[in-house]
Amino acid sequence: MSHHKIEVRNLYFSYPDGHKAIKNMSFSIYHGESIGIIGANGAGKSTLLMLLMGVYFPDGGEVLVGDVRVTKKTLPMIRQRLGMVFQDPDDQLFMTTVYEDVAFGPRNYKLEEEDVERRVMQALEKVGIPHLKDRAPYKLSGGEKRSAAIASVLSMQPDVLIMDEPTSGLDPKSRRRVIDLLKSFEHTKIITSHDLDMVLETCKRIIVIKKGEIAADGTAVDILSNEDLLNSCGLELPLSLQKCPVCGTSKGKFGYIHEKIVVDKEAKKELRLTRE
Amino acid sequence: MSNMINSLSNMRLLDDLARKETFIHRIHPLIKLLTTVVYLTVVVSFERYEIIGLLPFIFYPILIFAFAELPVAPILKMILLIEPFIIGIGILNPLFDHSKVLFGGIAISKGWVTFLSILIKCSLTVTASILLIATTGMDRFAVALRMLKIPKIFVLQILLTYRYISVLIEEVSRMIRAYSLRAPGQKGLKWSAWGSFAGQILLRTFERAERVYQAMNLRGFTGEYYTGDIAKLSFKDLAYFAAWSLFFIIARIYNIPVLIGSLFTGVI
Ligand SMILES: Nc1ncnc2c1ncn2[C@@H]1O[C@H](COP(=O)(O)OP(=O)(O)OP(=O)(O)O)[C@@H](O)[C@H]1O
Ligand SMILES: [Mg+2]
Fold this sequence. Notes:
Radius of gyration of chain B: 22 Å
Number of domains of chain A: 2
Oligomer: heterodimer
Strand order of the largest sheet of chain B: 1-2
Helix content of chain B: over 70%
Order of helices and strands of chain A: EEEHEEHEHHHHEHEHEEHHEEH
Shape of chain B: globular
Shape of chain A: globular
Largest sheet of chain B: 2 strands, antiparallel
Structural class of chain A: alpha/beta
Strand content of chain B: under 5%
Largest interface: A-B, 32 and 26 residues
Distance between the termini of chain A: 70 Å
Distance between the termini of chain B: 54 Å
Bound molecules: adenosine-5'-triphosphate, magnesium ion
């Protein structure tokens, strides 16, 4: 479906203080793709997302959503299609209860109150926090806040889900929940993160950004296993692709082949043999 | 300083209280707003030397406290926080107005009488406003304002100010925490740090406020706030409004404490 395509053409953007945050970026994202955007701190990931959402407007080039250019005039239409989860959930949750927060978007699109309720409950169930619906957002834990923030975007039923660092600051269980959640979405997804293992699990395609420019664009497996490329961009191999920290062997198709343990087993065998 | 922040962060408490489900909470927000407006107007309309006549008006907050099951202590704390400003407004009266007035046979300086009058009026109006928010919630309050055809832009201004105050408070308390952790055994802020502190707070809250606003925009916010369904005005609501208004107006026209007093002494 071509109307779900997002296209970025020769994008340039500088902050008001003159800092050139995005330089000559071009890429296209098609329906159903899952894209991970990675890069060191300050590479320009958040800025790029803001440009996609029309929070900032480019100095040069253009962003097309479907066949529509992102401009002031087309914003309402575009924002109905793209849902963005912010890096800091505190920025996103501003109503008095989780329910009200999740209902905020649908209500702005003037849905009937019954539909609003249905969507809110669906979104809350999807992220697994229907029991928190009457709690005040500022009283939630970090992981719960994140889930609420994701729900507040899901309730708008966007075609494309954009997330800025969805797993930062989460404990392993909450992180796993968010990853499983991301994997379960059939939406087009755009995710920025430093959590390369998460990106490897949830995204098929990776765009690497270095100082505001695209350094690489390719499949997740190719890029995330390219040690030289990652190192040159201030990143490193995902943990799951690194050498075993215990014995230094690479992870094979079936996990690490731990020589030490094998040796130990043989030693045991020998022991047993000698005993026998 | 951190004490003050604690009491200010009671703003969040107002949000929590507003979610209770009592008879008072269920009254239509528009009715509560109008009742409060009548109350404020009547209280403020008393002349500057009036004290006794104001006393019946304390019934309103007391009844609201009781029926809405609001905790008294934290709300009183909030009111006390505003009291210094009120005292600041009224304190010049005793200095300038030295004429005497007879009050139950004792001569008192008129200045002190006006000061007391201002103090009572302000406390009553502040309390009534806080109670309105504590039983209605800011969101529904905004809806009520919109029903009165108050321009969108003003209502939005109020709503965002209210939201940003809590953003500001959180930002300040975070910075103070960070500061005091690195300055153990020090009470308050060193004056030399005040400048950069204030600047930082301004910039930080500004940025944070902008991000919050962006997040609202991204979810289709166009300046109109929708807060679900609000029930239609019912007979109960109208009765509530009529009863209170009647009481306020009667208490304004007749000096009830004096009337009761004269009933007992038998002189009318
Ligand atoms: N409001 C701003 N004004 C000026 N410069 C800014 C502003 N926001 C970001 N920048 C600069 O733009 C560059 C890109 O910032 P951006 O926030 O997009 O980075 P990022 O890739 O999201 O980093 P991180 O991984 O730390 O979130 C940085 O060098 C940053 O200093
Ligand atoms: Mg970022």
